[in-house]
Specification:
Layout: H1 2-62, E1 68-71, E2 74-77, E3 84-88, E4 92-96, E5 103-106
Antiparallel strand pairs: 1-2, 3-4, 4-5
Length: about 110
């Protein structure tokens, strides 16, 4: 009987050791997955910023010599008739109406 209980005790000890190793591996894998998800999020934000920067540069290069004025500290370009220009992609766009001298500002 005593040998049998010692055998069970040894098996339980081995099982606990294996369980501890498994838990450490799982924790490490979860941390790696979180790091990968965080890097993917950062990469998506970076790509979006690059796209916006590229589009803004395209719009800025469309016309040279546009009349500029300052409104409440924000620089806005007045578009020529039929052209749309993006000032700050998150706040304002400036649309020039076809055939009119005055632009339409949308905030």
């Amino acid at each position: 009987m005593k040998r049998q209980s010692q055998k069970y005790l040894a098996e339980i000890t081995v099982f606990k050791a294996r369980l501890m190793v498994y838990n450490k591996e799982c924790t490490k894998k979860i941390e790696e997955e979180k790091a990968v998800m965080l890097l993917n999020d950062k990469m998506a934000v970076h790509n979006l910023e690059q796209e916006l920067r590229s589009e803004i540069n395209k719009v800025d290069c469309l016309e040279e010599g546009n009349f500029t004025k300052e409104l409440e500290g924000n620089l806005e370009r007045i578009a020529k008739s039929g052209y749309a220009q993006v000032q700050d992609p998150l706040t304002k766009i400036n649309l020039g109406d076809e055939g009119k001298d005055l632009p339409t500002f949308i905030s």
